[in-house]
């Protein structure tokens, strides 16, 4: 009886303890569920980054345990089952890897792989952790990752998730920051582009205005100005090419570029461009060579072809002190293409410069190659090649100090894509281009490449008003002619007396150095200096050559452009000033098309005489300025 009672008590107690244990387990489980739900809410609300927890069996074998709500929303997925494929496509951005490197995903990142390797030293389980997620350490990757149009920074950590050793990945969304940075760069590029275009358009205008002013000052000897008229014509055509680049760039951006295809002789088109740049090439001892069959003809857009050739040749001339520039064309009948190569013996480029050569906002800032990172020449050439050829592809081969070769292909037979509803403005532009091309003379022409310059502190006085009172409407024709001729003669006498400095025959000759990478600018300045009969003028296209010369021979005055390739004007004058113990320091005039404020800090200690803005609009003011400086010599 006693044994039976003891057994019943034992069973009752066992049942009690069992129920108590079950109740305790239930309470603990319910508490864990509540904690888990709380943790999930906290993670989703307080961690905007994509948070992913993985458990690795090996470097390539893993299981995704958890992803927060921000991660699912960022990648637009419903659950973590879709996350594996996405993680393998979140790859290192091209800016953070070398060309030869393979594409690496965030799972394959060396930082995460190092974490996995170091996991061996950590315990695989920890029962002492009451939190669902316990973070051990954090390491930030030095790479930027992207997926489609999104960008991410990655951070990795060892963690214990539900007491199991795991890997934690944080992906911080940097897309908005990247887009903001890009918009800032584009805004800077836009401002620089407008400044560069304004400068480039001023360059031919400077020559046109100076030669025109020279005409007005010497109307009695018109026959001697045939060459000046030629210069004005060629600068006008170069100006038209620049405007065409701007118009085409705008039309390409709006996807409205129309081609005007026709049959044309390739050699003749190239020689037309050679004539435009011949005088600039001659001034640098550069031989222009056209290695093209005389009878080679293609059906394509001749004007766009000329724009491309001109842009490449101008670029080559700018960085070729001497030697040759060759344009070579050969048919590739198998693909219906014409392969064109522009070969020069210039300064050459390193691979870094080549990689950024056609970037809109890439600045090289090495030996003053494309310092501002703006200008449309090469950018437009690449885009236009895409229209007149199969693709906008340009192969570049270059070695430092050995020259460069640019090669591209265009179609031999391109069907015109023009529609019948061309705008009146486009039609007028096409007609003007054709007339400008046909008006090229057989004489040697000069080239006007666009330098990068600045503008003056001195404002040259308001332009001299040469307008005369209108003729008496009641006078007869002969009286009008006589009066008109008298006015011209009086103007010439007045100008000569006003502009000519008082120099007697015994006045010593002054040596003048003009340094400008654009030969047209040198011609324009020499035209303004014609009234100073005691000046011996030496011309230099490259500042490097000018610096070597001034160490050998004494010069009294230097007129220097500012932005030039290889060595700019400010560097040149700075080096001249450092020779103060070796040579007599010359008077320096800085001449540029931009304003002085952009270079004010660099000019501050150069002790320049004056800063003059191009184009020079008033001969009298210019001569008065120079005359006042000559008195000091």
Instruction: Please give the number of β-strands.
Output: 19
Percent strand equals 15-25%
Mean pLDDT: 75
Q: Could you estimate the helical fraction of the residues in percent?
A: 40-55%
* CATH fold category name of the largest domain: Heat Shock Protein 90
Q: What do these coordinates show?
A:
This protein has 633 residues and is an alpha/beta fold. The chain has four domains: 42 residues; 127 residues, 2-Layer Sandwich (Beta-Lactamase), CATH 3.30.450; 221 residues, Heat Shock Protein 90 (2-Layer Sandwich); 154 residues, Response regulator (Rossmann fold, 3-Layer(aba) Sandwich), CATH 3.40.50. The chain is built from 17 helices and 19 strands. A hairpin with a 5-residue loop joins strand 1 and strand 2. Helix 6 runs antiparallel to helix 11.
């Amino acid at each position: 009886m006693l044994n039976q009672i003891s057994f019943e008590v034992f069973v009752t107690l066992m049942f009690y303890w069992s129920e108590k244990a079950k109740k305790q387990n239930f309470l603990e489980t319910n508490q864990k569920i509540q904690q888990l739900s709380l943790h999930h809410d906290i993670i989703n609300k307080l961690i905007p980054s994509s948070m992913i927890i993985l458990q690795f069996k090996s470097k390539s074998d893993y299981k995704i345990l958890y992803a927060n709500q921000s991660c699912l929303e960022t990648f637009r997925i419903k659950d973590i089952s879709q996350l594996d494929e996405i993680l393998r496509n979140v790859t290192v951005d091209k800016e953070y890897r070398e060309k030869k490197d393979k594409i690496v995903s965030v799972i394959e990142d060396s930082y995460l792989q190092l974490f996995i390797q170091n996991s061996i030293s950590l315990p695989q389980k920890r029962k002492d952790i009451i939190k669902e997620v316990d973070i051990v350490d954090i390491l930030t990757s030095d790479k930027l990752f992207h997926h489609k149009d999104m960008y991410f920074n990655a951070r990795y950590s060892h963690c214990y998730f539900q007491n199991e050793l795991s890997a934690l990945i944080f992906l911080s969304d940097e897309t908005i920051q990247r887009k903001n940075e890009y918009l800032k760069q584009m805004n800077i590029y836009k401002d620089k582009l407008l400044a560069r275009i304004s400068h480039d358009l001023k360059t031919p205008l400077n020559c046109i205005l100076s030669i025109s002013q020279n005409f007005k000052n010497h109307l009695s000897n018109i026959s001697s100005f045939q060459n000046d008229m030629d210069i004005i014509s060629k600068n006008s055509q170069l100006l038209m090419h620049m405007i065409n680049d701007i118009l085409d760039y705008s039309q390409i951006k709006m996807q409205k570029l129309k081609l005007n295809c026709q049959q044309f002789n390739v050699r003749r088109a190239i020689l037309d461009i050679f004539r435009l740049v011949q005088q600039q090439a001659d001034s640098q001892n550069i031989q222009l060579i056209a290695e093209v069959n005389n009878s080679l003809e293609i059906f394509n857009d001749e004007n766009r072809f000329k724009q491309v050739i001109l842009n490449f040749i101008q670029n080559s001339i700018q960085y070729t002190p001497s030697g040759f520039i060759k344009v070579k064309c050969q048919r590739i009948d198998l693909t219906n293409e014409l392969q064109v190569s522009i070969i020069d013996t210039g300064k050459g480029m390193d691979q870094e410069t080549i990689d950024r050569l056609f970037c809109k906002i890439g600045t090289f800032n090495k030996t003053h190659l494309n310092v501002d990172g703006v200008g449309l020449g090469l950018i437009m050439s690449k885009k236009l090649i895409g229209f007149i050829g199969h693709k906008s592809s340009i192969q570049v081969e270059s070695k430092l100090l050995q020259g460069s070769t640019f090669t591209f292909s265009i179609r031999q037979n391109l069907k015109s894509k023009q529609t019948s509803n061309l705008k009146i403005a486009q039609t007028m532009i096409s007609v003007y281009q054709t007339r400008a091309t046909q008006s090229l003379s057989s004489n040697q022409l000069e080239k006007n490449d666009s330098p990068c310059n600045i503008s003056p502190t001195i404002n040259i006085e308001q332009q001299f008003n040469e307008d005369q009172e209108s003729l008496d409407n009641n006078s007869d024709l002969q009286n009008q002619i006589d009066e008109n001729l008298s006015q011209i003669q009086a103007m010439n006498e007045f100008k000569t007396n006003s502009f000519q400095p008082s120099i007697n025959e015994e006045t010593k000759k002054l040596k003048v150095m003009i340094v400008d990478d654009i030969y047209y600018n040198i011609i324009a300045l020499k035209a303004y200096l014609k009234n100073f009969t005691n000046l011996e003028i030496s011309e230099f296209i490259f500042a490097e050559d000018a610096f070597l010369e001034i160490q050998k021979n004494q010069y009294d005055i230097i007129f220097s452009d500012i932005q030039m390739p290889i060595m700019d004007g400010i560097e040149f004058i700075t080096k001249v000033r450092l020779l103060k113990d070796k040579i007599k320091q010359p008077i320096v005039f800085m001449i540029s098309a931009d304003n002085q404020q952009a270079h004010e800090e660099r000019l501050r200690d150069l002790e320049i005489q004056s800063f003059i803005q191009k184009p020079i609009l008033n001969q009298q003011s210019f001569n008065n300025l120079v005359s006042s400086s000559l008195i000091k010599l």
